[in-house]
Amino acid sequence: MENHDLKKALKDDEVLALYFHEIADELTRIAIKITGNLDVDDILSETIIRAFKYRKKVKKPEYLKTWIIRILINNCKDYLRTNNKFVELVDDYEIVVENESFDFVNDYIDKLPTTCRNIIVLKYFSELSFKEIAEVLEMKESNVKYHYYQGLKLLKVEMEELYE
Q1: Spatial CB neighbours of 116, under 8 Å, sequence gap ≥ 6
Q2: What per-residue confidence (pLDDT) applies to 147?
Q3: What's this model's pTM, rounded to 2 decimal places?
Q4: Chain segment 78-99, per-residue pLDDT in tens
Q5: Angle CA(51)–CA(57)–CA(63) in degrees, nearest 5?
Q6: Could you report the per-residue pLDDT of 129-145, keeping only the tens digit for each?
Q7: Four-way CATH pick for 95-164: 3.40.50.740, 1.10.10.10, 1.25.40.10, 1.10.3720.10
Q8: Hey, CA dihedral for 156, 92, 45, 2, is it positive or negative?
Q9: How many Cα atoms sit within 13 Å of 49 on the Cβ side?
Q10: Do the bridges between strand 96-97 and strand 100-101 make them parallel or antiparallel, or are there none, so unpaired?
Q11: What is the pLDDT of residues 51-68, one digit of tens each?
Protein backbone atom coordinates (compact mmCIF):
# COMPACT_ATOMS: atom_id res chain seq x y z
CA MET A 1 0.00 0.00 0.00
CA GLU A 2 1.37 3.39 -0.94
CA ASN A 3 1.89 6.24 1.52
CA HIS A 4 -1.22 8.20 0.48
CA ASP A 5 -3.27 5.00 0.88
CA LEU A 6 -1.81 4.53 4.35
CA LYS A 7 -3.02 8.03 5.26
CA LYS A 8 -6.45 7.02 4.03
CA ALA A 9 -6.26 3.78 6.05
CA LEU A 10 -5.87 5.82 9.22
CA LYS A 11 -9.22 7.51 8.53
CA ASP A 12 -11.28 4.96 6.60
CA ASP A 13 -12.35 1.64 8.19
CA GLU A 14 -12.66 -0.16 4.86
CA VAL A 15 -9.19 0.85 3.67
CA LEU A 16 -7.67 -0.21 7.00
CA ALA A 17 -9.50 -3.54 6.77
CA LEU A 18 -8.03 -4.05 3.29
CA TYR A 19 -4.58 -3.25 4.63
CA PHE A 20 -5.00 -5.83 7.38
CA HIS A 21 -6.01 -8.33 4.72
CA GLU A 22 -2.76 -7.56 2.83
CA ILE A 23 -0.53 -8.11 5.86
CA ALA A 24 -2.53 -10.89 7.56
CA ASP A 25 -0.20 -13.73 6.57
CA GLU A 26 2.83 -11.84 7.81
CA LEU A 27 1.17 -11.00 11.13
CA THR A 28 0.11 -14.63 11.53
CA ARG A 29 3.65 -15.90 10.91
CA ILE A 30 5.07 -13.46 13.46
CA ALA A 31 2.51 -14.42 16.10
CA ILE A 32 3.12 -18.13 15.54
CA LYS A 33 6.88 -17.72 15.75
CA ILE A 34 6.69 -15.70 18.95
CA THR A 35 4.07 -17.77 20.78
CA GLY A 36 4.73 -21.20 19.32
CA ASN A 37 0.98 -21.59 19.07
CA LEU A 38 -0.74 -22.33 15.78
CA ASP A 39 -4.05 -21.00 17.09
CA VAL A 40 -3.28 -17.28 17.19
CA ASP A 41 -6.69 -16.02 16.08
CA ASP A 42 -7.43 -14.36 19.43
CA ILE A 43 -4.09 -12.56 19.40
CA LEU A 44 -4.66 -11.33 15.85
CA SER A 45 -8.22 -10.26 16.66
CA GLU A 46 -7.04 -8.26 19.66
CA THR A 47 -4.35 -6.66 17.50
CA ILE A 48 -6.90 -5.61 14.90
CA ILE A 49 -9.28 -4.24 17.53
CA ARG A 50 -6.52 -2.18 19.18
CA ALA A 51 -5.26 -0.91 15.83
CA PHE A 52 -8.73 0.26 14.81
CA LYS A 53 -9.32 1.83 18.21
CA TYR A 54 -6.01 3.70 18.50
CA ARG A 55 -5.06 4.33 14.86
CA LYS A 56 -5.36 8.10 15.29
CA LYS A 57 -2.25 7.94 17.49
CA VAL A 58 -0.10 7.06 14.47
CA LYS A 59 1.80 10.22 13.62
CA LYS A 60 3.47 9.02 10.43
CA PRO A 61 1.43 6.80 8.11
CA GLU A 62 4.57 5.15 6.69
CA TYR A 63 5.11 3.54 10.12
CA LEU A 64 1.62 2.03 10.28
CA LYS A 65 2.90 -1.49 9.67
CA THR A 66 5.62 -1.29 12.34
CA TRP A 67 3.07 0.18 14.76
CA ILE A 68 0.71 -2.74 14.10
CA ILE A 69 3.56 -5.24 14.54
CA ARG A 70 4.42 -3.59 17.88
CA ILE A 71 0.82 -4.09 19.03
CA LEU A 72 0.99 -7.70 17.85
CA ILE A 73 4.22 -8.36 19.75
CA ASN A 74 2.75 -6.84 22.92
CA ASN A 75 -0.33 -9.04 22.54
CA CYS A 76 1.91 -12.09 22.07
CA LYS A 77 3.84 -11.18 25.24
CA ASP A 78 0.54 -10.80 27.12
CA TYR A 79 -0.56 -14.21 25.85
CA LEU A 80 2.70 -15.82 26.98
CA ARG A 81 2.51 -14.14 30.38
CA THR A 82 -1.12 -15.11 30.90
CA ASN A 83 -0.60 -18.70 29.84
CA ASN A 84 2.76 -19.09 31.60
CA LYS A 85 4.29 -20.48 28.44
CA PHE A 86 7.84 -20.78 27.28
CA VAL A 87 8.56 -19.47 23.82
CA GLU A 88 9.14 -22.18 21.26
CA LEU A 89 9.04 -21.77 17.53
CA VAL A 90 6.85 -24.17 15.62
CA ASP A 91 8.14 -26.43 12.91
CA ASP A 92 5.45 -25.65 10.34
CA TYR A 93 7.45 -23.20 8.27
CA GLU A 94 10.34 -23.94 6.02
CA ILE A 95 12.99 -21.93 4.29
CA VAL A 96 13.28 -22.71 0.59
CA VAL A 97 16.14 -21.61 -1.65
CA GLU A 98 16.14 -22.78 -5.27
CA ASN A 99 13.73 -25.66 -4.58
CA GLU A 100 15.89 -26.92 -1.70
CA SER A 101 14.29 -27.23 1.74
CA PHE A 102 16.09 -25.83 4.77
CA ASP A 103 13.45 -26.57 7.40
CA PHE A 104 16.17 -28.05 9.67
CA VAL A 105 17.20 -24.45 10.39
CA ASN A 106 14.11 -24.18 12.62
CA ASP A 107 15.83 -26.31 15.27
CA TYR A 108 18.79 -23.95 15.33
CA ILE A 109 16.61 -20.83 15.44
CA ASP A 110 14.72 -22.37 18.39
CA LYS A 111 17.95 -22.50 20.40
CA LEU A 112 18.61 -18.74 20.12
CA PRO A 113 17.95 -16.36 23.03
CA THR A 114 14.51 -14.74 22.71
CA THR A 115 15.78 -11.28 21.74
CA CYS A 116 18.07 -12.61 19.02
CA ARG A 117 15.36 -14.96 17.74
CA ASN A 118 12.74 -12.19 17.56
CA ILE A 119 15.11 -9.87 15.69
CA ILE A 120 16.10 -12.56 13.19
CA VAL A 121 12.44 -13.49 12.65
CA LEU A 122 11.49 -9.86 12.04
CA LYS A 123 14.51 -9.31 9.77
CA TYR A 124 14.18 -12.40 7.59
CA PHE A 125 10.53 -13.39 7.74
CA SER A 126 8.99 -9.91 7.86
CA GLU A 127 11.80 -8.21 5.95
CA LEU A 128 11.89 -5.23 8.31
CA SER A 129 14.88 -2.88 8.37
CA PHE A 130 16.99 -2.48 11.50
CA LYS A 131 15.34 0.90 12.07
CA GLU A 132 11.84 -0.62 11.85
CA ILE A 133 12.80 -3.48 14.16
CA ALA A 134 14.19 -0.97 16.67
CA GLU A 135 10.86 0.88 16.63
CA VAL A 136 8.83 -2.32 16.94
CA LEU A 137 10.90 -3.70 19.83
CA GLU A 138 11.44 -0.26 21.38
CA MET A 139 15.21 -0.68 21.36
CA LYS A 140 18.09 1.38 20.06
CA GLU A 141 19.02 0.52 16.50
CA SER A 142 22.58 -0.24 17.62
CA ASN A 143 21.24 -2.78 20.15
CA VAL A 144 19.12 -4.41 17.46
CA LYS A 145 22.18 -4.78 15.24
CA TYR A 146 24.22 -6.15 18.14
CA HIS A 147 21.63 -8.84 18.98
CA TYR A 148 21.14 -9.61 15.29
CA TYR A 149 24.83 -10.26 14.72
CA GLN A 150 25.13 -12.15 18.01
CA GLY A 151 22.24 -14.37 16.86
CA LEU A 152 23.88 -14.97 13.50
CA LYS A 153 27.17 -15.79 15.23
CA LEU A 154 25.40 -18.30 17.51
CA LEU A 155 23.66 -19.86 14.50
CA LYS A 156 26.98 -20.18 12.71
CA VAL A 157 28.59 -21.90 15.69
CA GLU A 158 25.65 -24.28 16.11
CA MET A 159 25.43 -25.08 12.41
CA GLU A 160 29.16 -25.67 11.90
CA GLU A 161 28.59 -29.28 12.85
CA LEU A 162 26.73 -29.69 9.56
CA TYR A 163 29.89 -29.04 7.60
CA GLU A 164 32.27 -31.19 9.63
Answers
A1: 147, 148, 150, 151, 154
A2: 94
A3: 0.62
A4: 888 787 654 444 444 444 444 3
A5: 75
A6: 898 888 888 889 999 99
A7: 1.10.10.10
A8: positive
A9: 7
A10: antiparallel
A11: 989 888 888 888 888 889
Q: What are the residue ranges of CATH 1.10.1740.10 in the chain?
A: 1-88
The residue among 71, 23, 16 whose CA lies nearest residue 46 is: 71
DSSP result, the chain = --HHHHHHHTT-HHHHHHHHHHHHHHHHHHHHHHH--S--HHHHHHHHHHHHHHGGG-S-GGGHHHHHHHHHHHHHHHHHHHTT------S----EETTEE-TTHHHHHHTS-HHHHHHHHHHHTS---HHHHHHHHT--HHHHHHHHHHHHHHHHHHHGGGG-
Kindly give, in sequence order, each residue whose CB lies less than 8 Å from that of residue 94, ignoring residues fewer than 6 positions away.
Answer: 101, 102, 103, 106
Range(s) for CATH 1.10.10.10 in the chain? 95-164
